[in-house]
Amino acid sequence: MSFKYNRVLLVGATSGIGASMAEKFIREGAKVIAVGRRQERLDAFVQKHGPDKASGVRYDITDSAGLDAFVDGIVSKYPDLDCVFLNAGTQTPILLSKPAEVDLDAFHREISTNFSRPMDLSIKFLPHLLAKPFPTALLFTGSLLAAVPVIKAPAYATSKAALTAYVSCLRQVHKGSNTKIIEIWPPLVQSEIHDYMGPEKGRKMGMPTDEFTEQAWAQLAAGSEMVIVGSLGPPKEFHEMLRLRNGIFDTMANGRWGP
User: Where is the signal peptide (predicted)?
Assistant: First the structure.
């Protein structure tokens, strides 16, 4: 198996994709440091799996003032850390058709939570991962909407498009290092992120989290650095679009626009 890491830090581990992936890592033999805002869920995770396999750290990624203390605390306590998985995110409906009603602060907070804060965390953790004398990995949860936005969630789609652009550049400049840069693109997955639609509706929309996790894991285990589950529209056309996009990026990266 190509994807075998021993100590995984999973930011955004208390619900949805993060919680499901945390369970999968444990089943595959990794030790997981679960990070989230809800202490009771972190405690339940540790109690379920035991302190030898699981630990919990309460941290809100919007707390930029506490970023350095959080990162320093993690790398000091867990020197064997070899995988950082940045998964936390949020989604809200924003009606651009009614610009007078758009909450600009909320718009920017969503982009910050989904893009700026994961970017900050990656920059802070990356030196520690690169310095390790063994293989390491840095993972991001993106979205299919990075390729094609949905009108009712423009801040979310914008943040995920920005994240993909950043991750693509990060992967290219660290190509050949001992740190693998991985992005996961989920489809619509059943989780709390859609609670704004009402829990009864929102949590029943999309692919079950366990099904998504198994499909994503198969690609991770195969060594993929771009894990894509599902498609938007006809799969053949969608994946061909991505192939062309990636080909253009590679040409630019290896030419005058490269590092």
Answer: none
- For residue 189, the cross-strand partners are 207
Domains of the chain, residue spans: 7-233
Dihedral pair phi/psi, residue 35, rounded to 5°: -125, 135
Output the pLDDT for position 185: 97
Task: Convert 190-208 to b/e letters by CB count within 10 Å (16 or more is b).
Answer: bbebbeeeeeeebbeebbe
Residue in 1, 72, 16 with CA at minimum distance from that of residue 209: 16
CA distance 116 to 167: 12
158: its two tokens? 């914008």
| Three-class DSSP category at 113 | helix
pLDDT digit string, tens, across residues 88-120: 888 999 999 999 999 999 999 999 999 999 999
CB 82 within 8 A of CB 134: yes
Beta bridge partners of 58: 36
**pLDDT for res 202:** 62
CB atoms within 10 A of CB 116: 19
Q: Position of tokens 């996961």?
A: 184
Does the structure show a pLDDT above 70 at 125? Answer: yes
CATH architecture of 7-233: 3-Layer(aba) Sandwich (3.40)
Helix (H, G, I), strand (E, B) or coil at 228: strand
Q: Is the pLDDT of residue 194 over 60?
A: yes
What Cα–Cα distance (Å) separates residue 3 from each residue in 108, 173, 180, 194, 212? 35, 21, 10, 30, 17
Q: Do the beta carbons of residue 84 and residue 9 sit within 8 Å?
A: yes
Mean pLDDT of the chain, nearest integer: 93
pTM assigned to the model: 0.92
**190 pLDDT more than 90:** no
